[in-house]
Amino acid sequence: MAQILIYGAVTSAIYAMLAVGFTLIFGVARILNLAHGSFYALGAYTAYVLTTVLHWPLIPSVVVSVLIVAAFGVGLERLLVRPLRGSHIAVLMITLAMSLIVEQVLFLTFGSEYRNVPSLASGKVTLIGVDISAQRLVTLGVSVAALALLWLFIQRTRLGSAILAVSQDPEAAQYMGIPSDRVFATVMGLSAGLAALAAVLAAPFLTVQPGMGLLPMVKAFAIVIVGGLGSIPGSILGALLLGYSETIVAYLVSTSWTELVSLVAVLLTLILRPAGLFGKRAAF
User: Does residue 253 form part of some domain?
Assistant: First the structure.
């Protein structure tokens, strides 16, 4: 039980950062960004290049990796998404195309071999009788802190108030003088940065390879369906449900069955509560 409690919390924290970033861009811009998994992959590979190839210190590498991917997200929104925002199908297609391009560029640049990103913390820690790697505890702590800071940013800052206004009524916010394009770019940068941070924290105990963005994208999509599209509290709750469900299945049955958990969760949600646990109007 203690192992399930601790390892489930770590898994849920990673899922929460992925899902919150994904639902944030939907809750504000009303678009589904299929390139979200690419942000995750780019974060891991950027950290790999900075730490292993350029031999940068770990903490500066983490910060710079997140900032680079966040800038990439802003550029993607301005150059490709913004001109097509009027068509949801066009946005889906262009973000899907970008996801495939990023995967192929990573494959051609680094090959198909698995890469390793150094841990921010080495060794193991015994917690309530369970031996857990220090890196996983760092991942849990940083994830919780990042989500708390995001909440404070949205609730306590002027730009956060603008994000709230645009998420509730984009047209009225524009009439009030709020620069919606700036808000959309900011949200895309935050979404990309959260995905990159999740990758940098998880990469030391997971594999880094060109196709690594697909599974996180599927997990994030499943979580926001369960929690409700556009709902940050719903995404966090969905991440907890999915993270702990997968951990329980892995310990009691087999790790081979964990990938079915998200599919079953989505199926049950669509049947029993199609709007999700919170629904898109509960965004913040």
Answer: no
